[in-house]
Amino acid sequence: MEIDYKDHGKKPYIIDIEEATLGNDNYRTTIWTGEKLQTTVMAIKPGDDIGLEVHHGIDQFIRIEEGEGVCKMGPSEDDLNVEEKVSDDDVVFVPADMWHNIENTGDKPLKLYTIYAGPDHLPGTVHPTHEDAENDPNED
């Protein structure tokens, strides 16, 4: 089945999330946005990262489908007291208001999907590159 990389939110949607994640080459593609949940697929280039961030009032689930990296989390931007390697099939649970970042330490793209409870990006968000995400005025 061919993946249609657009936001299918607010209606029922069934997808092979592994196939969608591995097939995505954009830094970020939002594939479903509901009232209280959002899912994006991401491809982080070698040497790049998600970007140190915090989601106020939003819990986050991240699953690594392919690649390797390091996850850093902590209560503040300057206190990332959790640091652990991540790779295929690992998941990261990020509590609301927790600073976090995942850096790609491998030599191929780090493919992952993330679920936000509730939504963090505008419905339909696509960022082909990390730079596009950083320059998007709708991102905090």
From TrEMBL:
<dbReference type="Pfam" id="PF07883">
    <property type="entry name" value="Cupin_2"/>
</dbReference>
<dbReference type="InterPro" id="IPR011051">
    <property type="entry name" value="RmlC_Cupin_sf"/>
</dbReference>
<dbReference type="GO" id="GO:0016853">
    <property type="term" value="F:isomerase activity"/>
</dbReference>
<keyword id="KW-0413">Isomerase</keyword>
<protein>
    <submittedName>
        <fullName>Mannose-6-phosphate isomerase, cupin superfamily</fullName>
    </submittedName>
</protein>
<dbReference type="InterPro" id="IPR013096">
    <property type="entry name" value="Cupin_2"/>
</dbReference>
<feature type="domain" description="Cupin type-2">
    <location>
        <begin position="41"/>
        <end position="116"/>
    </location>
</feature>
<dbReference type="InterPro" id="IPR052538">
    <property type="entry name" value="Flavonoid_dioxygenase-like"/>
</dbReference>
<dbReference type="InterPro" id="IPR014710">
    <property type="entry name" value="RmlC-like_jellyroll"/>
</dbReference>
